Amino acid sequence: MKKLFLINILGLALFVCTTSMAMATSVTIDSTTYTTASSSTTYGGFIAPSNTSWDSGSNKINIVDWLLTYGGNNSYTYVTTGTWLSDGASSVILAEIAGNANTNTFGYYTESGRTQLFNGSASTNATTDFNLNPAQIFGFYLGVSGGTFYYTDNSLNQNIQAAIFQLNDTNQYIIGFEDLPYGSSDKDFQDMIVKATIDQTAPVPEPATMLLLGSGLLGLAGFRKKIKK
Hints:
2 domains; 11 strands
């Protein structure tokens, strides 16, 4: 189903430089420290070891191992609320390890609907910004063939489709998507990996506040119907 997109040494060096990510000797996610990429790495009971993925673990690259390899010696917090209140953000594609890479799309969504930022021809290191006036709640989505969309707010999905990690309590987030329904996917969350930097000119509420805002703004079921039109 999937195929590995080979990257030569020069391309890898460019990737590391342009994304400001560095080879790591350790990565801490919440209170767990990872030091070695392994085909048996798991996280949170929903990110599967890469030996269950399309390449049988030969590349050891589920999202946790990807952070360990390319995420620098940093600490990350797993984020369960996949929406933000801000007046914009910038996004850069860090990796696309998927057979559907040429057709997958990426963008942001608000109460008004979806706006595409990258199409299937976008490549690693593609970068884009968007602005919202006034500031409002938004999230990101991955669009796949057949007109299906997976959202960073996993309550809009039938299951978990996006794994979100906040970098060192900053306004930067690493988002890993699954591009197949979770139940039939390999659960490695590296089909598309995006770094999102949320603008800080508008306040970003705490998760509890965000949930209240989200429930009021989205009216979740109605919002889901509206956004799929």
